[in-house]
Amino acid sequence: MPSLGADMTEGTLLEWLVSPGDEVHRGDVVAVVDTSKSAVEVECFDDGVVDALVVEPGTRVPVGTVLATLRSPAGAAPEPAPAAVAPVEPSPAVAGPSPAAPPAPPPAAPAHRGGPGRISPLARRLAAELDVDLATVHGTGLHGVVRAEDVRAAAAPRPQDREQDMRHSIAALMTRSNAEIPHYHLTLTLDLHRTLEWLRERNLGLSMAERLVPAAALLRATAIAATEVPELNGHWVDGAFRPAEHVDLGLVLSLRSGGLLVPVIGAAESLDAVATMARVRDLTRRARGGRLRGSELAPPSLTVSNLGDQGVESVAGVIYPPQVALVGFGAVSDRPWAVDGMLGVRPLVTVTLAADHRATDGAVGSRFLRALDRALQDPASSMEQRQGAVTS
Amino acid sequence: MTATTEEVAPTTRETTYREALREAHREAMRRDERVFLMGEDVGRYGGCFAVSLGLLEEFGEQRVRDTPLSESAFTGAGIGAALGGMRPIVEIMTVNFSLLALDQILNSAATLRHMSGGQLSVPLVIRMTTGGGRQLAAQHSHSLEAYYAHIPGLTVLSPATLEDARGMLWPALEDPDPVVVFEHGSLYNVAGRLPEEPAAVDIAHAAVRRAGRDITLVGYGGTVPLALEAADVLATQGVDAEVVDLRVLRPLDDETILGSVARTHRAVVVDEGWRSVGIAAEVSARIAERSLYELDAPVERVCAAEVPLPYAKHLEDAALPQVDEVVAAARRAVGADA
Amino acid sequence: MTPDRARSALQEAIGHVVPGADLAGLPPETDVRDAFELDSLDFVEVVEQLSTIVGFRIEDHEAEALRTVGSAERFLTARAPA
């Protein structure tokens, strides 16, 4: 059971997408797991053949529990799996009768005391109370008896509960952020008309499925700015800034059912605007359908909040620790602007950088915003160009 | 007087189960001149298990009476004395010998109130040593509490702690109807601390000796320390056991027993009597009758093997309930080895 | 294209992003984005679905015509071949 969030302690296995005997490769999606926030696809990190599925679907287990074992493709004996987390240890030897004694044989468990299909009275009562279909419950008691904890494991968390869980997680993170991080905020209003014109022209040549929205351009520009000002792309750990190898952009998505998800566009610096758009659409679609992969919920190196979509002018955000910055974009709207010394109207967007004052000062933040502006004033090169890895 | 840590709490002193019983007798005989002790070797010898050691010297022959070797006769005499307004304590050496007085106890002591339409009361206390584990072999190792707990008209007690050994005698004497008290032979030497001024105890309720969440271990008399030891072992294995000391075998305290099962949803009853038709069977039946829908696993019973109790040490150990059997039963109930 | 066909096409397109979306009873001046809480990505998705359903491309500047339920219906009935 992977850890899919700093605060995750357990998860429920929802389904297996492989069976014993299947060949799997690194990166294959092998299972779906339910965390308190959403269903997440779990990837495999090794090549091999599935040897045994250890945990049954519907079971809630702590992070770290062995879910399945693999054997090497050559068909060698199964690797010794690390001991599954077990609540009970074997009983220690108790001083008993002398070795010569014939021990009183313990009475064998008669068949009527348990077996597949048997359900304890408590489990039956709970199933009625929790509205669980007993036919779907797997028994983990003696000889396969269905017990109360099996029924509780099978009772799906009500959507209300998940929403509450998510709210608690967000509350904890935001509180921690405000408590730990000394924020400073810098704001810049940018003229987007060159970028929007570039987008319009570019869209004429793209299929409907590839159509670009302004958000893609804003994200692309953010990735460029992050490569030019790497001091804002990384994490504050143990009292020091650790720059990230790539620009892994977190995108704040609000869910229809309430709450937030922050899927990650990995190595965004290497994606042009079209590729960025494709990633955003794919992630958004799957995030809303609850089918994100574990690697897509990994911690970003920099997060972007695009609340401008909801019509607000600017977003002075709260940084997600241990990141050191958050970029907030307001709505793109036609506003008065000085054009060649005269009053004109241009599509403007207000960007607000929230940054960790332990890691950077205003001078660094200002450079970032100016880099962002430069990228958006020269879309022909910034929107197309691919960048290499971030250099400090 | 210099301050000591004991001044913040009531003064306690080191004592034993045996001494606590003796002190209870002293207190009773000082408080009420109608109380007297009678039985085989209780006077000059000081009691077969030394419970009444010194009492003859302190209270004299009228209050501490050696009897002939005839359980039926001296139990009948005790009943007569009680009918006559006295408060006798009849000591029958062990439950094994009480069978000779069973007719007196059942057909007279327990039944005279009923047969006399309430005119006659038998305020008699009978004390008996019970249980095995000391290689006293087949005829002297019985746990026959079930025989007595079966009889309407009797109150049956089983003190397992020093507090109960000290405290149960007085309310038993105050009871206008016959009370039978069982003392497990292995408990007499158990040492501990008791307050100089012990608190009163009741003879109506069971007691939770150890609170727990995962399973209820029910015991009485000699099986209470066994259950507590099993609970300690289970704790090292991640199973949190609650231990209920029945204290009163008739009438059973359903509220405490069933209340515990309602919390833990599993039960193991530890009974040194034989498995069939015993105290554990009665407790199991009550759990099934009134708490079936709380149970997450069948009730387990750990009882004596259904054989005459052996003399050889290893065979006797094999026949009596042991800690590892209780642990294994608890693990089956919680599904630890499923 | 008839107004009814236009309306059902729009409903189907929105339904891809907002399952169970129902246009019945909504006045023509209803803002599509506000009514169904569509952000820019949702809207682009809706436009794409609509384009697939009606069988012709809808360009960025044309997407402006899809602002309200009424304007969307008018746009589709005028623009569609049949």
Describe this structure in words.
Chain A is of the alpha+beta class. Helices cover 26% and strands 23% of the residues of chain A. In chain A, strands 8, 11, 14, 16, 17, 18 and 19 form a 7-stranded mixed sheet that branches. In chain A, strand 12 and strand 13 (260-261) form a beta hairpin. In chain A, helix 5 (214-228) packs across helix 6. Chain A is elongated. With 338 residues, chain B is α/β, with parallel strands linked by helices. Chain B has helices at residues 17-31, 55-59, 71-83, 95-98, 102-109, 112-115, 145-149, 162-167, 169-174, 223-236, 254-264, 279-291, 313-319, 323-334, and strands at 12-16, 35-39, 64-66, 87-94, 125-130, 155-157, 179-184, 191-195, 207-210, 215-219, 241-245, 248-250, 267-274, 300-304. In chain B, strands 3-2-4-5-7-6-12 form a 7-stranded mixed sheet, with helices on both faces. Chain B has a 5-stranded mixed sheet with strand order 9-11-10-13-14, with helices on both faces. The relative contact order of chain B is 0.12. The longest helix of chain C has 15 residues, at 3-17. Chain C is globular, with a radius of gyration of 11 Å. By secondary structure, chain C is mostly helical. The mean pLDDT of chain C is 85. Chain A binds chain B through residues 87-89, 91-92, 94, 96-98, 100-104, 106, 109, 113-114, 120-125, 140-145, 147-148, and chain B through 233, 236-239, 265, 292-298, 305, 313-315, 317-319, 322-325, 327-328, 331-332, 335-338.
Unreliable residue stretches of chain B: 1-6
Residue runs with pLDDT of under 50 for 5 or more positions of chain A: 76-111
**End-to-end span of chain B in angstroms?**
61 Å
Number of helices of chain A: 8
Global morphology of chain B: globular
Our Rg estimate of chain B from Cα atoms comes to 20 Å
The spatial strand order of the largest sheet of chain B comes to: 3-2-4-5-7-6-12
Name the helix and strand elements of chain B from N-terminus to C-terminus, one letter apiece. EHEHEHEHHHEHEHHEEEEHEEHEHEHH
What gap, in angstroms, lies between the N and C termini of chain A? 35 Å
Percent of sequence in beta strands of chain B: 15-25%
